[in-house]
User: Fold Thiamine-phosphate synthase from Actibacterium mucosum KCTC 23349.
Amino acid sequence: MTLDRFYPIFDDVRWLERMLPLGVKLVQLRIKEADDATLRDQITRAKALCDDAGAVLVVNDYWQMAIELGCDWVHLGQEDLDEADVSAIRAAGLKLGLSTHDPSELARAMSHAPDYVALGPVYPTILKKMKWHQQGLERVTVWKGLVGDTPLVAIGGMSVERAPGAFAAGADIVSAVTDITLNDDPEARVRAWLEVTR
Assistant:
């Protein structure tokens, strides 16, 4: 299956309730601090919403719970990869997306035959303190040359206005976080995203 070119990331299932009806078809649930009961509830509800909307749900980090709850996709950062059992993820039939920031991380990611590779931050991001400075569009082009047919996700400081440049540089998918969640009108922003990515 071909993944949608627009890939928003949200930290609460309530965002999915708002955005899936607008036509979002690929979404990541990234919850950083929560107890197991809350996580299970969030992922279960997110999966039901995505199933109803015909959308792909990617669960960030919590691969064991993703397997247990019958999810189809999991996303892992490099630190998550240190702990994760990739063969168990694959044996359960889940698809796998991996974060990369430098050539050694990309080589490591590609050794797992990921279903997509994310490169970031393409632009400066306010989301989290990172040891990597902005990668720039040139790095997107280099990465696309290296990953070949593996879908490439551009993430970090992405906006509606910057999306066309990322696609032109070689990204297959553009991911957004704060450009939506911090917008005065998140629904209008998502509509603008859908317009620019389709």
In short: The domain at 6-197 is CATH 3.20.20.70 (TIM Barrel). DSSP finds ten helices and eight strands in the chain.
